[in-house]
């Protein structure tokens, strides 16, 4: 029986406000309908940042102290905003052999909560055909969002939750805290410029955007990093993994925006942890990459974002980032093709 694994990442569904970067609901539904029509046993891997809980305010405020109650509230707002997407996913699951796996990314850490998982299973139906995790693995393929090989957004697998002031909270990484406490102001003031990747092209073309980013970065470095290191702030959620931060600086200097520079390092780390795979697939980087590594006989794929995002040349001409997906096709127990495809 033919079977397929389909992979998309970084759809970043929110609640329809200025912080919600998902704009193409009909195209996503069209894609889900396409793979629903495929014959055989099909698995859809929603490879992280499926939802953008991180950039959703709660009661008009952003916080890095995330309880299960807050995450459930956000999950319900997303469902109310995009019911047709959830209906399309439900229809996909209604086919007997189909499955959905949610990989957890840095924007949807809230999927770690058992209550959020239960809620999504309830609204999608077929709960036994829905799974959650930090990666999807079988004998031939490893799929993860990519934040687990990113020092700023790595989830503590051994300690996903933490007790603080009588509450159980998500143990969010330093990148999450930096966004909601500092850099969310950049999104609010420059909503278009923030959608331009690679990030350095946005800085080159929009000096005011670069200036604001530099100002916020200085504030974060002195308040979030140096001040915290000297005096401590007593908030375990805002703790800085200084060892990981120093590792990043040793490996990459102060560069954090050019993902092409980190690409092979991240795939190398991934292949060390999960050796002997035919395919390594991730998202997270907001770039497109497809390469067969000769001699090692494996394929590397990065699927680009499905949020509204632009690629810009030096003359300020911008084009919408391509909507891409990975497809691993089997016949029997053997892979026949590993593709990165555009969808329009």
Structural summary, described in words:
Strand 3, helix 4 and strand 4 form a beta-alpha-beta unit. The mean pLDDT is 91. The protein is 35% helix and 22% strand. Helix 1 runs parallel beside helix 3, helix 2 runs parallel beside helix 4 and helix 5 packs antiparallel against helix 7. The protein has one domain: 4-Layer Sandwich (Purple Acid Phosphatase, chain A, domain 2), CATH 3.60.21.10. It is built from nine helices and 15 strands. Strands 4-3-2-1-14-15 form a six-stranded mixed sheet, covered by helices on one side. The protein is globular and about 60 Å long. With 344 residues, the protein is α/β, with parallel strands linked by helices.
Précis, in short:
With 344 residues, the chain is an alpha/beta fold.
What low-confidence regions span 5 or more consecutive residues with pLDDT below 50?
none
Kindly report how far apart the N and C termini lie. 28 Å
Which topology does CATH recognise? Answer: Purple Acid Phosphatase, chain A, domain 2
What oligomeric arrangement do these chains adopt? Answer: single chain
What is the ordering of alpha helices and beta strands? EHEHHEHEEEEEHHHHHEEEEEEE
**Percent range for β-strand residues:** 15-25%
Total domain units: 1
Q: Which structural class fits the helix and strand makeup?
A: alpha/beta
Strand order of the largest sheet: 4-3-2-1-14-15
Helical proportion? 25-40%
The CATH class assignment is Alpha Beta
Number of beta-strand segments: 15
Looking at CATH, the homologous superfamily is: Metallo-dependent phosphatases
Please tally the helical runs, counting DSSP H or I stretches of 4 or more residues. Answer: 9
| Largest sheet composition | 6 strands, mixed
Q: What's the CATH architecture name?
A: 4-Layer Sandwich
Provide the residue-averaged pLDDT. 91
